């Protein structure tokens, strides 16, 4: 499912670009579709990673709007949805860190010029980007799909992803029902868990 | 052991790039996965971990995109709201641009903290000056609200044994029909007038309607027989086989068999206001907490999700947002749909619009003219003895029947496969 969606995302840049232009130029729907997309990304983060209340979500939305207006001109010709995702994700992470009075340490850039090299997007699977890389990604798909099917799999993947975002054990613990030690344990066994699953699945 | 030895190199020269790499491969893997270190090409542990990190982020992005692409046609923000967001963002940019201190601090890396505080203050200022009058929700600033105690359920989660309660912060709102906002899709009904501003205390309400599974637990525990089950009285349904499709009593129907297929994740229907009250009493006793039905004002406040528009998502009905008459987009159900299948409003509450009418505490009044302004249940001077209020519209409703202001009445013992309910309770300020 993830692979298919990534491919779809690549095809939807045109729609995203149009939505951004409507926001920047205040034409057609005044950017309502773009801000609805932003809302859905915020809700995605609120549901999976941090329990944001309405006021927080509204503040994040407004701050994302500022970022889109400030940086949008750079991607006016081609605005990938993944860039909007990165802007929203960074703002959500910044928000919860501001709440806990911690400064951002590890964060991918939401500057569209820096995005290509830093935002962590997977190489497009439909292009010939190397058989080895495709095999590796396919393997990771299988492994994480297998993890997701396990009893606590969905919750585990949330933790793994939060760690990949650069969250600390404590931050993850604060947004889940597990202790700091339990988070550390979960992360520390992941490497071996992956190895074993890769042997089974790939 | 040196890093060169780690990587299998020999010789006496040190590779400056690898000096700072942690010795332990597991530690390198963990740090690379966490994004803490720059990846050194050729270092297998780091490259593997970095690939996995990128994969997980891309997977999350794909999931987010997948959710969005399912609802590509959805625009939950109106053109007016988008315009408002744009104006506020422009003002914010101008203010920040004029603030040399902000620029100075930005240069030295503390802008994130200062900016966050500035944004919070400015938003508070501009909210009050740019909102439309009367119809706009005005939040109360209340200390001690801890949203992290309330978990929002995802659409793929089966409802638990008891309703999942969410916190709704208090504020003031105009309930009823406000001209220019609510009178869409055929206009408002006379019983939605006059619009009335009420102050709502912070309270809790269930994310979904009470489900079949939750109601079954109550019946199992108590042996309770619903009004529809007593002496086989039955439940009202729409007889689609008869001319004019009249609503008629069917003695074979009750909450277990409402006339359409269901499972435990569906909202319980064929329940009367009295049945709903009995469930609430049992739930209170079972959980040692005082549950109740929401008041009518609370219900509308929660259903609007802080929006002034006719529906919580905007000014036009959409089958991508709710289950009502007909099918299309996400709405694939001819009858009731399982709870939690449609987008939540800004309070994270689902299914207020359509699916089932929901009983509230208040008795019926033909207008809002003397409704309490403190958000409490209006249970005096009732228009018709024994008549209660139901809100939100059902799965058969036309587009103007699922507006947030839509209201109707029913007898305390009336039951239909269009009627259900959700629960509420007072919020208790935590003791310091």
Q: Overview of this structure, please?
A:
The complex is a heterodimer of chains A (202) and B (432). By secondary structure, chain A is mostly helical. Chain A has two domains: 117 residues, no CATH class; 71 residues. In chain A, 71% of the residues lie in helices and 0% in strands. Chain A contains ten helices and no strands. Chain A is globular and about 55 Å long. Chain A starts with a helix and ends with a helix. The relative contact order of chain A is 0.10. Chain B is an alpha+beta fold and 432 residues long. Chain B folds into three domains: 68 residues, no CATH class; 52 residues, no CATH class; 280 residues, paralog of FGE (formylglycine-generating enzyme). Chain B contains nine helices and 13 strands. In chain B, the strands form four sheets. In chain B, strands 2-5-13-8 form a four-stranded antiparallel beta sheet. In chain B, a hairpin with an 8-residue loop joins strand 6 and strand 7. In chain B, helix 2 packs parallel to helix 3 and helix 5 packs antiparallel against helix 6. The longest helix of chain B is centred in the first third of the chain and has 27 residues. Chain B is globular, with a radius of gyration of 27 Å. In chain B, 45% of the residues are buried. Classes of the chains: A mainly alpha (202), B alpha+beta (432). Chains A and B meet through helix 1, helix 3, helix 4, helix 5 and helix 7 of A and helix 2, helix 3, helix 4 and helix 6 of B.
């Amino acid at each position: 499912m993830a692979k298919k969606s990534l491919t779809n995302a690549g095809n939807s840049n045109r729609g995203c670009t149009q939505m951004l232009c409507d926001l920047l130029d205040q034409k057609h729907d005044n950017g309502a579709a773009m801000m609805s997309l932003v809302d859905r990304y915020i809700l995605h983060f609120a549901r999976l990673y941090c329990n944001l209340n309405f006021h927080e979500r509204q503040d994040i939305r407004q701050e994302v709007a500022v970022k889109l207006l400030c940086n949008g001109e750079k991607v006016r010709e081609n605005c990938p949805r993944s860039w909007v995702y990165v802007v929203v994700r960074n703002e959500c992470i910044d928000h919860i860190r501001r709440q806990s009075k911690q400064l951002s340490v590890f964060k991918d850039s939401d500057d569209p010029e820096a995005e290509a090299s830093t935002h962590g997007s997977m190489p497009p699977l439909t292009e010939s980007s190397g058989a080895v890389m495709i095999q590796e990604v396919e393997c990771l798909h299988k492994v994480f799909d297998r993890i997701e099917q396990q009893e606590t799999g969905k919750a585990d993947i949330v933790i793994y992803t939060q760690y990949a975002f650069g969250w600390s054990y404590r931050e993850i613990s604060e947004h889940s029902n597990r202790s700091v030690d339990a988070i550390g344990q979960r992360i520390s066994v992941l490497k071996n868990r992956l190895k074993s699953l890769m042997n089974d699945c790939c | 052991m040196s890093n060169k030895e780690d990587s299998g190199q020999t010789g006496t020269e040190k590779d400056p790039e690898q000096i700072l790499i942690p010795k332990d491969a597991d530690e390198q893997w963990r740090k690379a996965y966490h994004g803490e270190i720059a990846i050194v090409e050729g270092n297998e542990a780091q490259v593997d971990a970095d690939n996995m990190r990128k994969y997980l982020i891309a997977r999350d992005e794909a999931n987010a995109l997948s959710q969005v692409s399912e609802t590509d046609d959805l625009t939950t923000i109106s053109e007016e709201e988008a315009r408002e967001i744009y104006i506020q963002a422009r003002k914010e940019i101008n203010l920040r641009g004029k603030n040399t201190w902000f620029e100075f601090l930005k240069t030295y890396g503390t802008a994130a903290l200062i900016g966050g505080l500035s944004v919070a203050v400015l938003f508070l200022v501009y909210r009050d000056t740019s909102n439309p009058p009367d119809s706009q929700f005005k939040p109360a600033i209340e200390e001690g609200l801890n949203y992290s105690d309330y978990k929002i359920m995802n659409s793929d989660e089966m409802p638990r044994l008891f309703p999942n309660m969410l916190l709704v912060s208090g504020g003031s709102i105009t309930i009823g029909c406000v001209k220019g906002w609510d009178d869409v899709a055929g206009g408002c009904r006379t019983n939605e007038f006059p619009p009335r501003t009420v102050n709502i205390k912070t309270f809790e309400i269930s994310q979904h309607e009470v489900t079949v599974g939750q109601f079954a637990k109550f019946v199992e525990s108590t042996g309770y027989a619903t009004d529809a089950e007593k002496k086989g009285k039955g439940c009202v349904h729409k007889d689609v086989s008869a001319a004019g499709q009249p609503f008629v009593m069917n003695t074979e129907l009750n909450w277990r068999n409402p006339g359409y297929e269901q499972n435990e994740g569906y909202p319980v229907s064929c329940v009367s206001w009295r049945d709903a009250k009995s469930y609430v009493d049992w739930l209170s006793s079972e959980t040692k907490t005082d549950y109740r039905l929401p008041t009518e004002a609370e219900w509308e406040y929660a259903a609007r999700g802080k929006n002034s528009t006719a529906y919580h998502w905007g000014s036009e009905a959409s089958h991508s947002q709710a289950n009502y008459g007909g099918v299309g987009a996400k709405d694939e159900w001819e009858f009731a749909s399982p709870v939690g299948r449609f987008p939540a409003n800004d309070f994270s509450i689902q299914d207020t619009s359509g699916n089932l009418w929901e009983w509230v505490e208040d008795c019926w009044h033909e207008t809002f003219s003397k409704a309490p302004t403190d958000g409490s249940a209006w249970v005096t001077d009732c228009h018709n003895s024994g008549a209660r209020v139901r809100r939100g519209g059902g799965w058969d409703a036309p587009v103007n029947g699922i507006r947030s202001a839509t209201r109707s009445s029913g007898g305390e013992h009336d039951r239909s496969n269009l009627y259900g309910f959700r629960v509420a309770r007072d919020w208790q300020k935590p003791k310091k």
